[in-house]
Design a protein that fits this description.
There is one protein chain. The chain has about 475 residues and is an alpha/beta fold. The chain folds into three domains: about 80 residues, Alpha-Beta Plaits (2-Layer Sandwich), CATH 3.30.70; about 80 residues, 2-Layer Sandwich (GMP Synthetase, Chain A, domain 3); about 200 residues, 3-Layer(aba) Sandwich (Rossmann fold), CATH 3.40.50.150. Helix content is about 25%, strand content about 20%. Helix 6 links the parallel strand 6 and strand 7. The N terminus is likely disordered. One of its GO terms (cellular component) is mitochondrial matrix.
Length: about 475
Amino acid sequence: LWRFGYSARLLKTNHFRTAASNTSFPAVWMLLAQYSGTIPARFVVVKKNRFFTMTETVPETHKANLELYSPHPEVRGMTLLNRAAFKRTVVVPVLKVKKEVVNTLLKSLKHTVLQRPGLKRVVEDPEDEDSRLVILDPHKIPEFSLGELEQEVLKQLNVRPEVSKYNLELTYENFKSEEILRAVLPEGQEVTSGFSRVGHIAHLNLRDHQLPYRYLIGQVIIDKNPGITCVVNKTNIIDSTYRNFQMEVLAGESNLVTKVKESNIAYELDFSKVYWNPRLSTEHSRIVELLKPGDVLFDVFAGIGPFAIPAAKKKCRVFANDLNPESYSWLLHNCKLNKVDNKIKAFNMDGRDFLLGPVREELSKELPLLKEEQKTSFHIVMNLPALAIEFLDVFRHLLVGEPCSTAGLPTVHCYGFSKHDDPAKDIQERAEASLGTSLAGRCSTYLVRNVAPSKEMLCISFHIPADVLYKRPCP
């Protein structure tokens, strides 16, 4: 320790006693090095599992400095954004340092120096052009008093260990969106800073108590998220025939035609007229990964093509349908955009009519020709969680004739919502009721996402049982 200029009493400080008590000697050197910026050569190599992470707590004396992360209290209740009202001045500790040692000091005291995005850590010294003021984190310097550890580091750098007070001006630009909204909304109420991003659009689902502040919330999201130029709020649930919803533009431009990218595939859409949920990207990829080149995909509720287009790019034959004329139009547009328009047959029909028409026709033609050695698989995707399970009764005696081989039976991937205590069991029982048969041991359920605190979205996958799919001719 003496060789590197440290007093042995460093290890007696409270800061190190806890860390060093059950930590190897090399690990203690690593802790020292965090503050000194220097690691003795013989201890450079330390095994990964020997690092020790200390949990930092904020003492009561530090809580007075929390205004560093809080806008001016007078903004509480603001409904129209006034950026100037967020300005405030706080007192922070600083060290006066010669210019030539500033960089070394920043490395040596990196856990003590202020680390706040958007705020300078080093400012000009108004009294000495050869010096700089290094701003320290007020949470780490209680009562503007340096600890023994910091004092020893400064001693090695020949820096006077005297902490001064500095008036730091904070503005709207220095606060994060969550901090701004927490300061504005009534205390104790939920703060919304999360959103779904669809191209240049931020999509919110605001609660009732947040609605009076919706225009302010929208503008804050635009200010704090580069690339977002439009913020919308859903005004009712998705219960229309075409799966779109009414929305209100809260801030920014009213252009709702946007571009998105998912799994390196580009899509264009009018967000106000078609359904698109960026949270389903993983599910789209999961289903497409099940397909092999040459397989056949029937997408009953295709939307703008997030299942159909990547499947076509995988050299599958695709039949895609959507009842919404806008979705159908954008589906055709995106097929051309991704150069798969010659690989996808698109339909603008009711889902039931699509299953009873094009799907039945294709299966009636293809399945009898299927040989045991052929490996073509047929997949039917039904992604309309609110209603899709009710469509499963269509498969009852959809085809006439003798059943094909078990391997050739189509696989259905049907989505549904559940508020049941056992959502997997609930989805299976409802599917069985529609099909008129048991799926025990013949299906799998997959949890797609949590929609609400007591509402899950699931996917149930199964081969359509032969006795359900086929109506055998009378002898």
